[in-house]
Write a structure and sequence with these properties.
single chain, mainly alpha
Amino acid sequence: MNFAEHLPALQVALPLASAPLAVLLRDRLAAFLLVLAATWAAFAISIMLWLQVGESGPISYAIGSWPPPWGIEYRVDALSSLVLMLVSGIAAVVLPYSRASIEREIRLDTHYLFYAMFALCLTGLLGITITGDAFNLFVFLEISSLSSYVLIAMGKDRRALVASYQYLIMGTIGATFIVIGVGLLYLKTGTLNLADMSVRLQAMTSHRPVLAALAFLTVGISLKLALFPLHQWLPNAYAYAPSAVSAFLAATATKVSVYALLRFYFSVFGETTIFKQLPMEDLMLILALAGMFIASSVAIFQDNLKRLFAYSSVAQIGYIVLGISFDSVSGLTATIVHLLNHAVTKGALFLLLGAVMAQMGGVTLARVQGIGKLMPITSFAIVLCGLSLIGVPGTAGFVSKWYLILAAMEKGQWWLVFLIVLSSLLAVIYVWRFVEAAYFRTPRSDLAHVREARLGLAIPAWILVAATLWFGIDTSITVGSAAAAAGMLLGVSP
């Protein structure tokens, strides 16, 4: 048996198998080591799949030896291999961090359940990315969502339970819309295989059930990716979840939902249906701009740093959707690059805020005043990530916004270039609020004893901070892979 042939199945099977085993072990150290091994193995497999796709093109893996479209297919191409690597890579960094962070944030006797839920969430996100079956995509989406609700609710703050409940209600509505959309597509095409569905839909793009399916899927997935104004669940979920959970979800969950939207829009329905027959380009442009400006404006007035950067995430999702609205290779390249760069930057930020919370007992602006003197290295790292959100040259965020500006210029929409720059100035304001509190105010007397974060918290955070800076200088992996994925989605040869 050739081991390499079964990498797509192992990508999902390893973290999935580790979840029930972690529960059976009922020991936090054993559960941690087991899930850590599965997570790092998944990351290694994703790198191998990415290299394979780069060398020999898309990979099709038939589950149970039933050939597609009759059997379930796992499919890895330029886009999915990139997202698999992102999700498993973030998980591989966040999980060691969680070992140190959940000591204060989650009851000791439930740690093994935390690792089991983390493994299930990772399984769901990887499954969404790799499956070539529409109903399986929905099933994996529910696996990741249900485990996310539990992970958020595990926070000691009572508001975490309310945040989880809000997310559950809105997530359930989104999932219902998605399954109705998938059902309508199955009704019209008689298949659940995404590639086969795409072929059969070409002759019926104007049929009302198909357009209804598109509408249901758009609303359902937009709820999951927190597209303005369907973002209401996100700020509380990020603010009150345990720090490791906030970092993992901020870096992966919404990004995988963007992947699902790209997959349905360009691989299933096709560019013609979405942007030529319907006014989707204008609608997505309006919602993207609303998210960029309104969410950034709301972020400015937040006193809790986790809520501040949660609203920042809604704004950054606006940039991602803006790239989709351009309906061009440049626009999609910008979308995919920003998907990667924002995941790394926001993951780093929430890990750093978790380290601050562990040392200072909270992350409100009043509590962190003077932190630049007490925790200078951590404070400097937060500022670096803030510069990336603004889009300062030398950071990953600059690369993303530069490609968005290029896409706007390619369309001749100079007014959009102005709005992209203007919205970035709003990011300057909310990042400055942290800088002012950290460096221009004196520390509270009751926190004068605070020192730098422990290495178990600092090292994983700095790995992502380093990646934020590296991807701002070397764009060969991010932009090169994103351009190849964008060309594949639009059927344009490189």
